[in-house]
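Shift notes (night). Ran cyanoalanine nitrilase while the centrifuge was going.
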Amino acid sequence: MALVTSGSGGAPVIAEVEMNGSPDPGSTTVRATVVQASTVFYDTPATLDKAERLIEEAAGYGSQLVVFPEAFIGGYPRGSTFGFGINVSIINPKDKGKEAFRRYHAAAIDVPEEPTGPEVTRLAAMAGKYKVFLVMGVIEREGYTLYCSVLFFDPLGHYLGKHRKLMPTALERIIWGFGDGSTIPVYDTPLGKIGALICWENKMPLLRTALYGKGIEIYCAPTADSRPVWQASMTHIALEGGCFVLSANQFCRRKDYPSPPEYEFAGLDEEPSPDTVVCPGGSVIISPTGQVLAGPNYEGEALITADLDLGEIVRAKFDFDVVGHYARPEVLSLVVNDQPQVPVSFTSAAEKTPAAKSDCIAKSY
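Came back to this:
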């Protein structure tokens, strides 16, 4: 393993590169990087600039796939309760909390399908410029509702689509909307079949099974969970799905967020010092056999890179294929509703054809 200090602006970023030796001659090898870095909170243009520096560095190490953490663009609102209080026992948030949401809403990005928004267009251009598949965690704004989403881009500079977090966790439900089954994609790419679930979605067995059913091979897990137990979940998913798991988390210090009183951390005995680590990362890459290929890293902002031998997927599924020979569909099965769920739909009356009008006239007599 090589540890190389690289200059991404500001504090040094560690590039942790795991060279896995020579893969089998007939297999495909993919070099992948998970980015462990902090958002520039409330400053989306600066965060996009930082993302480009990190993508450029990862591409410089030969990476073909770059995965960013949950909510990298727009920010994960760690420590904020948006005026509801720790136990959310009051009905209405305080005005200060509403203003915090306004600023958070302003930092989110629009993700229209056609034409794409300016931030999506820029991210697509980054993927094309550095010739990488890009998986980016964002806070998506649709009207006045926010969604925690992951966007996918190909090396030709095309926006492929998105996954919206199906089930926000705990207080996240106050500020983020719920995704539906229409955005659970798995993309068939030259690198393998790529998809993503976000943070505690990865603990939902049926949702994981939906991805397995789509044949996922490179399973991306952007997260905000830095607890050591998260590693057990990632290892289990790699073994269960017979897939590579790439989990990316932010490494944040208090100073990466606005200073008080503009931004306050709730639930702590005292305001943390600027250098206090509020999220230690833990980003990791795991093989289909449960082997940790790179990470977990708890030391600082990092580019964590490993070579993925896709032949490992076939070898892992020889004795356990969760939706193949190890499935029992006559006993257990899953039905996924992949239709968009909308609160308002409009049905226009179809214009009647002449024949239909004549038929109505005839019947009226």
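The first helix runs from residue 44 to 60. Helices lie at 44-60, 95-107, 118-130, 172-175, 205-213, 229-241, 311-317, 354-364.
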